[in-house]
Amino acid sequence: MVDLSVDLGFLKLKNPVMAASGTFGYGLEFQPLYNLNLLGGLVVKGLYFKPREGNPPPRLAESPCGLINSIGLQGIGVEAFCREILPWLADLTTAVIANVCGEEEGEYARVAEYLSRHPGLAALELNISCPNVREGGKCPAQDPEATYRTVKRVRQASSLPLITKLSPNVTDITAVALAAQEAGSQAVSLVNTFLALAIDLESRKPKLGNVLGGLSGPAIKPLAMRMVFEVARKVKIPVIGLGGIFNYQDALEFMVAGASAVQVGTANFVNPQACPEIIKGIEDWAESQGIKRLSEIVGSLKF
Ligand code: SIN
User: 131: CA distance to ligand 1 center in Å?
Assistant: First the structure.
C-alpha cells in the first residue's frame, strides 16, 4: 500500500489530486459521475458576494492543445452558496475549498468573512488571478504590493487556511508568491490561465465576446511547471501546481518539480473521470516504483 496522503501543514489531504476551480462547478454537478470522496480536494467555482452574470458570449474558444475561456466568474454569490450548496458539501470527507473573488480588497475580505461563519470548508483559495474580469486582463496577482494588501486583508477577515492562486501573466512569479507568503498565505496555487486572443479570420473578429481570454490545457503545461519549479525553490509554504494536467504522469511531473499537491482543471471537461483516473494512475505508478510515501517525490528533480 502506498501512502498517498499530503500534509500541507494546515490541511491533510488523502491524496494530492484536487479538482480545480471553475472546471468542477460547485461539486454537485460531478456527484452522479463518481464518489467525490475519492478526491484529495475540490475547489468550487469562484464566489463574489452577490450573484454575477459573467461575460458576454461566446465564452469559449478551442486552440491546439488548449482552451481559451472568458467566463467572467459567473456565479451564484456567497449567500446562495452557503445556503444551498455548502450544507451538502460539508458531508463529504474530501477537502472542500472555496474560491474567493472580489471587485476590490474589501469584497474579498467580506466574502472570506462570510464563508468562515459557515461550517464545511477546509480552506479558502484567493482568486486574485482571473484574467477575465478587469480591463485588459489585469489582476491583483500581477503586482506584489496589491497581492500583499489583498492577502493581508483576507487574512485578517478569516481564520480559515488561505491558499493564494497566482497568475502566470507576470515577469517574475516568485516575487508575487513571496508577497503572498509574507502577508500570511499558507500556500500558493499556480498557475491560473495565460492571457490569450483567438481570432476568426473570415470576420476578423475576436472569437470571444470579451475579446481576450485565458488559455489552459496541455499547451500551457511546460510553462506552468517551470513556474512551479521556480516558486517552490523560493517560498517556504507549500505549492499546489496546476496547468494542463491531463494524466497521472503530468501530475507526478508537477510534484517532482516541487508541487506538494496538484489541481486538475481543463481535463475535467474532456474526461469527467480524469481526477479518479489520475489518482489511480499515481497509486499504481508509486507501487511499481516501490515508493511507500508519495510525498517523497516532491521537489525531487535531479539537475
Ligand atoms: C473565469 O471565470 O473567467 C475564469 C476563472 C479564473 O480564471 O479564475
Answer: 7
